[in-house]
Specification:
There is one protein chain. The protein is α+β, with helices and mostly antiparallel strands and 478 residues long. The chain folds into three domains: 21-120, Rossmann fold; 149-219, Dna Ligase, domain 1, CATH 3.30.1490.20; 224-473, D-amino Acid Aminotransferase, Chain A, domain 1 (2-Layer Sandwich). Helices cover 32% and strands 27% of the residues. The chain contains 15 helices and 23 strands. Strands 1, 10, 11, 12, 13, 14, 15, 20 and 22 form a nine-stranded antiparallel β-sheet that branches. Strand 2 (21-24), helix 1 (28-40) and strand 3 form a beta-alpha-beta unit. Helix 12 (416-428) runs antiparallel to helix 13 (439-447) and helix 13 packs across helix 15 (460-473). The longest helix is centred in the middle third of the chain and has 18 residues, at 267-284. It is globular. The relative contact order is 0.13.
Amino acid sequence: MLTEISLPGSKSKPMPRPVTRVLIANRGEIARRIIRSCKAMNLETVAVYSDADATSLFVEEADVSVHLGPSRAADSYLRPDLILQAAQQTDADAIHPGYGFLAENAEFAEGVIAAGLTWVGPDPQTLRDMGDKERARAIARRADVPIVPGSDRVGVGSDVDIATLARTVGYPLLVKAAAGGGGIGMRLVEHEDKLSRTVEATQNMAEKAFGDGTVFFERFVGHARHVEIQVFGYGDGSAIHLFERDCSLQRRFQKVIEESPAPGLRPEVLAKMADAALSMCRATRYAGAGTVEFIVDAETQDFFFLEMNTRIQVEHPVTEMVTGVDLVAMQIAFASGGLDPLTRSEVATTGHAVECRLYAEKPEKSFMPSPGRLRRLRLPPEAPDLRIDCGYREGDEVSMFYDPMVAKIIAHGPDRTATCQRAVAALRQIEVEGIETNRDFLIACLNDPQFQGGHVHTSFIDQNVKQLLSAVSEGTLQ
């Protein structure tokens, strides 16, 4: 059931204005995805690109394109000044950041707004609040949302006794970057003898990735599910949720297969989780699309707040397939003041959806990235029950400079079994030469009896990797 909440009042924010041309501050498949919604809304688009992406599909599909600079993201997609300059040069009146890069950067959002442009995303203060994981936990605590036991922050060079701090949290624990997200800047510590070096390594990683080396400790829930609630807030305390996605199939805290509905979770647990997600929206007066993520104890089904992602998610197609709602179009319409709030009767789920992330990687070699030229790329044709989100075509280069995801294969069916079968059939149609991919590994996961029985958890791949790789090498994927 779709739940609604409402509160009087709202945050002060710029008045929305009509949007006619959207600059997409991103690349690859998410840039193409945003272009698709903009075209359906009769909006023009501006692509920005680096040297590595000069001949990419998203650059061709946009109405206007602007070269940013060298291939390294730090010299192109992470340069707010160049992106704002491109917006001014092309008369864009809105910026959509997609996900990753500058999508959750409060300073960038402020720069967009200060330039008189429409920011397609939550307000900068919300980005700050949710981007700081410790601050987000404090907000969740005040909103009566259950959180995993954790510690205060530890800054670089802090004189805090980290051993004592860790003992209060308990082992095993996660050392997490306070400014991190999406699995980046997160390391598991099972014993105290590895604590000091892990803290130092995580701080160094966080400093490089986020410009902030602050970390904190969080209790590690061993046999866990990773379940998230898609929300859309209207900036005045009112919000809706668009049901859940199960993202438990992961490796190194990075998602591999996502699905909706979440298999095996009790309806009352999902309802409480949705209410908790809406409490976060109310506490932050959330504006736009977002995702509230939870860790769920796979045995007790107790759940705990993990983080709130203040952007569109990589796995948003799962929600779109089961609800029929275009989340990107909702983002743009809301930002420009043209969105009529959805009501309970307007959103429902139909069937089941599964998303598989096709990566350029070598599963048999610890999933090492496999960049290179796509000498051959054959993907299955899209259909009402199959969606392909891909940023590449045959002859393109999968660059070492960016995430190695090649495509997302999203299947839909009347139930989980039929949907997984459809996903497997689609994956088998994929032909790739020039690089290695995890295609067969994905098939092995979908065909695994434990997965088929709905026994998913965040350690599933780690615990079963040998038998999954064995199924790949022995060709037992039929």
